[in-house]
Amino acid sequence: MIVTRGLTKRYGRIQALKGLDMEVPEGAVYGFIGQNGAGKTTTLRILAGLLRADGGQATIGGYDIQRHPRVIHDLVGYMPDFFGVYDDLRVGEYLEFYAAAYGIRGATARTLRDGLLELVDLAAKRDAFVDTLSRGMQQRLCLARALIHDPPVLLLDEPASGLDPLARVEMRELLKELCLMGKTIIISSHILSELADLCTHIGMVADGRILRQGPLEAVLAAARSRRYTMRCLGTADAAVTLLAAFPEVTVGEPRPVNGSGDEQVELVLPGGATQAVAVLRHLIANGVAVTHFAETWTNLETTFIELAREETA
Q1: Half-sphere exposure of 53 (CA within 13 A, CB side)
Q2: Does the pTM of the predicted model rise above 0.90?
Q3: 61 three-state secondary structure
């Protein structure tokens, strides 16, 4: 549904995007994750047709975003990380105003307005002034605005930014409902825990490039297969010394295990399971009493940090 190839963008001396390649399947909820300044907002603005790339290509639904701007306008609903609201408008008027921008007026606009307010749980606030809404309510109103023309693609830039814990839960539940409606959604965020139970796919971006992307479980599984926890009977000093035979293996500091006198060490094995077998055989053959050797569970945040460090190195 969404594809970019070699996307570049420069702001003066700052290279925001450095050949960004992205693939978002139709119907996916794509978590676009990275630190502030990684290039997330620039990418979304280019996809929304609000910013012109310096190089590369981007298509949505097969349509080039530069050659077919009107088609992209209809395909995409964009929710920026910072949005303007008209404080002198009531909530219902606000949505009718944006409906009119898409040529939707009269009874059709009013029906659409009421349906969207029901969807985002703001029906009771239809006659309230926009500036009286809480931050969370304004975020939901902005999402309703992005949905006003029923676009198949949603680009959401930090939708939970500035929200309190309850408002974040409400926003997450609303996004899950949109997933069930078959929307293709890109959600950018630097709060990685917010996306772990919501996204079907992720793209990890740092310094203007995609580090890794794909189905969520596949990306996590690839990282998990490289991380291992090893426990030794007694101290792990001998094991650490022997692991010097594998210079590509990253060895953590030995840590005590529940006051038992035993120690455990975290390992990162670039060679995955094949290398794990070789390491374990080497340790046992040299008399190390290994009591536990297994893959370590890896969460989204740990995976991103590791990949970002590798990219920096």
Answers
A1: 27
A2: no
A3: coil
